[in-house]
Amino acid sequence: MAIERQTIVYDGPGGPFEGVAAIDTAVIGPRPGVMIVPNVLGQKEQDNVVAERLAALGYVGFVADTYGKGKRTTRESPKPTLYMDELNADRALLRDRLHASVTALKALPQVDAARTAAIGYCFGGKSVIDLARSGGVLGVVAFHGIFDPPGYDYPTPIAAKLLICHGWDDPLAPPAAVTALAAELTEAGADWQLHGYGHAGHAFSDPSMKGATRPGFGYDEIADRRSWQAMRDFLGDLFG
How would residue 212 be classed by pLDDT, with cut points 50, 70 and 90? Predict the structure, then answer.
């Protein structure tokens, strides 16, 4: 195993964009590609590590950039939600940037373009559900995502399969939002499954949130481990 990172600059609406691919160069030939859509802060080292973990599982991991090259925030930024807010206000633009990112993933020579998926965290979870709605990949996994509908029409039946990994105590996606999403996906004819983790809240898979004091937020080792295994099973089934 020889996992290497590559910086990928690509075009899209409002671009350029800069993503990071993790590839096992010891593997010969194309393999499935899995796109990672980051949380509110945008692409960062934590996401690059996820890409490497996916590469170790036999995929090409690709961290998407939906904000634009150089547009990142931290929790200490004056407004950490700056770039997320812009896309929340224009979900069609978010959709189009996601599709530009999928195009960049599929263009990588190590990727089997017919076998791609996407996973996302928090805002990235919302993003990959939007991607499932609009098409372009075989399946998506949302970790502690946000579930509000995008406000535009999309093709049905939804072709992409969905795995929703949800912390039941997440105040950003209360039970009413969960059941509304389930109803929407059912009506849209999607193949979907929901894993709810008791006593887990928002950002349960984010180790940087250990010790968080805000109610309903924080890292949960059990939910993190179980959801990662659920993702592995989902991708294995998806790609055969």
Answer: confident
